[in-house]
Q: What sequence folds into this?
């Protein structure tokens, strides 16, 4: 078994997966203070609707533009294609650096294999779990015993995606916000407004659209900037659910420590 070839295949496997307000005074005594606290003025607590006057399609368009313009954000979700579930949880910068985890290859959240991923500039790195390396080795022609041996050898190590064997930009797709928003972008017309909902403590406008058996749902923040907080596609052949958070949070992604990295390009044939 060619170890260099296996390492290359292992790295490329990941690419294929894919406020409170208070007022009052004490002029009239404690009784009036208590009454004021018990019956606050609606005008003092209600916030203006930042999406007022916009149609459902306009809200979706505004949400997508606002989300794409951030310096960084967190993307977490799942996609299902041909019965294979892929889950991801990554923090992404506007320039495409990212760090997070990817789980794929199973039909449920508890099955399949997982890998940590990092993309820094044009360099991409993966660190798989034992099952990830075993499955990848077997797909590359290794026996189960060989796969287990290589998994033990690579345990806890990062693998750098070799530029001459595969395009690191393919791995970076998991770190591309536009790709995560692609389906939402394609489905943003013909929407209807629904009842507001809560997404992780944030009030969100709900927009829906049904196309055949498939239902698309957008959750747009009504607190502050109109970010897209969540998008789901249900009932179709490839359902997905993607959630966005930590908009414009400070984020710096660094390459793994050099002594923890195996670079297939530097290994003997």
A:
């Amino acid at each position: 078994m060619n170890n260099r070839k296996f390492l290359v295949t292992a790295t490329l496997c990941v690419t294929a997966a894919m406020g409170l307000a208070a007022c009052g005074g004490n002029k009239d005594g404690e009784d009036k203070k208590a009454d004021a606290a018990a019956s606050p003025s609606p005008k003092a607590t209600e916030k203006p609707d930042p999406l007022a006057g916009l149609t459902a399609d306009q809200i979706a368009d505004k949400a997508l533009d606002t989300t794409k313009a951030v310096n960084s954000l967190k993307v977490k979700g799942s996609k299902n294609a041909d019965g294979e579930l892929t889950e991801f949880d990554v923090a992404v910068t506007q320039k495409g650096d990212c760090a997070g985890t990817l789980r794929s290859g199973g039909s449920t959240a508890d099955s399949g294999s997982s890998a940590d991923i990092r993309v820094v500039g044009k360099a991409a790195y993966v660190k798989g779990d034992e099952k990830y390396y075993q499955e990848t080795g077997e797909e590359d022609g290794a026996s189960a015993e060989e796969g287990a041996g290589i998994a033990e050898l690579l345990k806890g190590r990062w693998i750098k995606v070799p530029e001459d064997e595969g395009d690191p930009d393919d791995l970076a797709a998991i770190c591309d916000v536009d790709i995560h928003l692609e389906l939402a972008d394609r489905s943003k017309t013909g929407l209807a407004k629904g009842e507001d909902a809560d997404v992780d403590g944030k009030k969100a406008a709900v927009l829906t659209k049904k196309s055949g058996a498939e239902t698309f749902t957008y959750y747009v923040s009504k607190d502050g900037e109109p970010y897209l907080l969540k998008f789901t596609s249900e009932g179709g052949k490839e359902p997905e659910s993607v959630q966005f958070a930590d908009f414009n949070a400070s984020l710096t992604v660094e390459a793994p420590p050099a002594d923890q990295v195996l670079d297939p390009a530097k290994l003997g044939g």
